[in-house]
Amino acid sequence: MPDQMELVALFALGFFTLLVAGVFQAFSDFVMAGLKRACPSAGAEVMQHINRTVIRSVFVVSLLAIAPLSAALAFYAAFNMEGSSRALTISAAVIYIPAVFLVTAAANVPRNERLDKMAAYSNEGRDYWAVYLREWTGWNHVRTLGSAATGAVYMLAAITL
Known about the structure:
Layout: H1 3-37, H2 40-54, H3 58-80, H4 83-116, H5 123-160
Helix pairs in contact: 1-2, 1-3, 1-5, 2-5, 3-4, 4-5
């Protein structure tokens, strides 16, 4: 891959990863806080609709695509790049895959699936909503920091290329 292609790949991954971080930040900063202010059943129902809608979004495509693209670029960097740009490119994948991709798969998605199976206006749904808010948002903070750090590292890698 010529240097121009490396630069484009690093900036593109950095850009899309920072967009993902922005969506996560919005949820951590005000979406979940707004849902928490609603009555528990209404908050749970709205989150169920959000979760059902997000699955068919460009956001999820980006979130999922960044992991294999990061792994592929890290593999490429290990053999074809030098110095700090190589180290930063590999570091970006090392941050993103566990802190964003795996946290999403192991922490946030199972909570979404559990919430989706409940009737929002049932006692079970209302009771779980308080747990869901705390746990899901906590893990979302991890994803926010992980994707923001990854995006910053990709941008640094591009700058140092």
